[in-house]
Amino acid sequence: MTHDLDVIVLGGGAAGLFCARVAGLNGRHVAVLEHQSRPGNKILISGGGRCNFTNLGATAANYVTHGSPHFPKSALARYTPADFLRLVEQHGIAWHEKKLGQLFCDQSSRQILALLEAECADVGARILTGCRIESVTRSHPTDVRPWEVVTSQGTFRASSVVVAVGALSFPKLGATPFGYDLARQFDLRVIDPRPGLVPLTWNPGDSAVFAELSGLAIECEAQAGPDTPRFKEAVLFTHRGLSGPAILQVSSQREPGSPIHLNLLPGIDIPAWLTDRQRFTQTPRQALRTVWPDRLAQAWCSRGIPDRPLAQLSRKDLEALGRQLGHWTIQPAGDEGYPKAEVTLGGVDTAELSSKTLESRKAPGLFFIGEVVDITGWLGGYNFQWAWASGHAAGSAA
Q: What DSSP designation does 301 have?
């Protein structure tokens, strides 16, 4: 059976469903083809089940890309966090701001999925689940419906195809490289993908000292390098390495194989603090116990830190201790990979796409949105905002 449409959306995640809703609002005949048994699986698990659905402060500066840092500006400006928040409130979904502009549902992530499904239904956009895509081809560009998608549920023809299939994170939810393969089929460049917002793993030397601290968390200021953002959030020690918001953030900023840097006493003038601690005739471990759990102070000081009162340390030793506390350089062995990654870095090169519409420059009528594009948000609702903004941009043009 052949189905004639205006727009075919490949992928029923956040970006795909929102794009279908926008295209439907513009009077387009739309179908969403989802290979899983239900749409929105990643939405359901997000934000600990409460969906961090946007961030009030989202700007282009909150995204990582190998292309122009200005690329996200157009889409983000034309569909803002306030726009999506209005839609959330229209659906009667209670929400709260957790911290740093991060907005969550009071109740459940299912409310955001229900919102998207209801919006699609209202505009007549069909959602077909369990629909396996077998091929995507394009006939002559002057044809009314040049795009043909052959699936397990029949053949679909349309004037536009929007690729919203996600990327490689969370393979247990059905993540595949399909979007990258399709981009390459039409001669679009793909930036090599790798895990982003992902825990980092210990090298053997650090593991021997710190793996036993599993479950311990403290505030820190983390940075991947001198020209990258600083993130003042929690770091979590695990058996395998370091996790927590600060580490997830810098994991997306670091180049593979490069170290990360942690200030373990954020907001403290460390030289002045060490001088003050000298008054109490404290050893480094005793001083650190006043600001850290004892287990961490003990493990930290076991790495060659002098076990004598701070007042007896030379200026050189005090300066070295201050540098270690304020700029602990860690060389991770690697990361925990796509099963633990919140997102995927890399993807379809933004140079191949229109920043206004997300349409391919080489294959008119072919759009790429959401995580499949080389645009990756920080932790904290930014990736959902990119899903809404990129979906809106493509849905308005497809």
A: H
Residue 52, Ramachandran bin (φ over 0: left; ψ between -120 and 50: alpha; else beta): beta
Contacts of 388 (CB under 8 A, 6+ apart): 14, 15, 18, 54, 79, 83, 84
Q: In 3-state terms, what secondary structure has residue 289?
A: coil
| CA–CA separation, 368 and 358 (whole Å) | 6
In sequence order, which residues have a C-beta less than 8 Å from that of residue 98 and are 6 or more positions away?
Answer: 52, 104
Contacts of residue 4, defined as CB under 8 A and 6 or more positions apart, other chains included, come to 29, 145, 157, 158
In this prediction, residue 141 carries a pLDDT of 76
> What is the strand order of the sheet 2-4 is part of?
2-4, 154-158, 147-151, 133-138
Rounded Cα distance between 95 and 168, Å, is: 29
- What pLDDT is stored for residue 142 in this prediction? 82
Q: What percent of the chain has pLDDT over 90?
A: 94
Average pLDDT, the chain: 96
Q: How far apart are CA 327 and CA 367, in angstroms?
A: 43
Rounded Cα gap, residues 199 and 292, in angstroms: 22
- Which residue segments constitute the domains of the chain, with CATH numbers given? 2-195+341-397 (3.50.50.60), 200-335 (2.40.30.10)
Contact 180, 348 (CB under 8 A): yes
Q: Which of 382, 374, 398 is nearest to 81 (CA)?
A: 382
Residue 349: what pLDDT? 98
What's the predicted TM-score (pTM) here?
Answer: 0.96
8 A C-beta contact, residue 167 and residue 343: yes
The tens digit of pLDDT for each residue in 370-381 reads: 999 999 999 999
Q: Yes or no: say if 360 and 373 are a contact pair by the CB < 8 Å rule.
A: no
Torsion, CA 80, CA 82, CA 84, CA 89, rounded to 10: -170
Per-residue pLDDT of 35-83, as tens digits, reads 999 999 999 999 999 999 999 999 999 999 999 999 999 999 999 999 9
